[in-house]
């Protein structure tokens, strides 16, 4: 009996054995180890350079955005943003200075805070605000680390309407692309479509 990873590799091999102009892959890295994920991305980049368009849906935001030319973010079944990963980061995260990952529970009405599993992520808007949060965490004896903002933070910071900063960071009107509307009817809210070939 094949393991889940072996089944996934077999299915990917079947799909990628076809020489076609467009590939659609749904969560292709689920069940793959790190080595095989890197091999898959290398294969997809080579197919893209050869002229194929590759659409990938995935919840692994940082992994996908690091290898894709274009990223499409979907919230509540509607397109929230579309563009190059670096462009989206500049456009939607410009209001934040840094993020602080607190190992434990932390709440604040003055900062954008998101609970992620056992941790709490605090988004600061300036160096001064970052220092204030760090001082508060140190006084409380809470362990933390400061991290750089990534494209995943677009969702973590603003994906719920009650998060502070939501209205300021997301565009006033969600980006809409008429040619994608039929696809969006059955695309889950947290899945992104990525085109490796722009």
Keywords:
198 residues, alpha+beta, 2 domains, 5-stranded mixed β-sheet, 24% strand, elongated, ABC_transporter_ATP-binding, P-loop_NTPase, ATP-binding, nucleotide-binding, transport
Biggest beta-sheet profile: 5 strands, mixed
Largest sheet: spatial strand order: 1-2-9-3-4
Q: How many H/I helical runs?
A: 8
CATH architecture of the largest domain: 3-Layer(aba) Sandwich
| Mean pLDDT value | 75
How would you describe the shape?
elongated
Helix/strand order: HEHEHEEHEEEHEHHHE
Secondary structural class: alpha+beta
Count every beta strand, where a strand is a DSSP E run of 2 or more residues: 9
Strand content: 15-25%
Low-confidence stretches: 160-198
Terminus-to-terminus distance: 39 Å
Task: Count the domains.
Answer: 2
What percent of the residues sit in helical stretches (DSSP H or I)? 25-40%
CATH fold-level topology of the largest domain = Rossmann fold
Q: CATH superfamily of the largest domain, please? A: P-loop containing nucleotide triphosphate hydrolases
Radius of gyration, CA atoms, in whole angstroms = 19 Å
Under the CATH scheme, which class of the largest domain? Alpha Beta
